Amino acid sequence: MTIRLLFLICLCCSLSLTANIPRLQGVAVRGRLVCGNESLAGAKVKIVDIDTRPDIDDLLGENYTDSNGNFELNGSTRELSTIETVLKIYHDCDDGILPCQRKVVWHIPSSYHHDGIVKRYFDVGTVNMEIVFRGEERDCRH
């Protein structure tokens, strides 16, 4: 009887310990940005895990679009809870001489999350950044 009780206590303790171990989670994104009929080269793209306070947001990856406007990002982090990822794009398409850059933020569906090994990319396709997106902002510090 005492051996069973001791076994159950050990089992419960080990389960509670493993439940609090952060697990590796990530996301991969790719696409092509254009500005009208031209490739949008040099636009900054980031994938970020949005966290609530007191935890800070995690930058999973960042890069710039190439000369053809293409980008590909993959990144991961360790979190206890399920990550909530967004793609942030900073650009000057159709911007004139306004200061700072246009900032667009798109939610990435959780069905594209991975466990450290990319299973599939969230492919945004080709996007014309002349469009003014709902919630778009200007950002000088990114």
Automatic annotation (TrEMBL):
Secreted recorded as keyword: yes
Signal peptide: 1-18
InterPro entries: Transthyretin-like (IPR001534), Transthyretin-like_sf (IPR038479)
GO CC field: cell surface; extracellular region
Keywords: Secreted, Signal
Intracellular or extracellular location(s): Secreted
Transmembrane segment boundaries: none
Family in the record: Belongs to the nematode transthyretin-like family.
Protein's name in the database: Transthyretin-like family protein
Source species taxonomy: Eukaryota, Metazoa, Ecdysozoa, Nematoda, Chromadorea
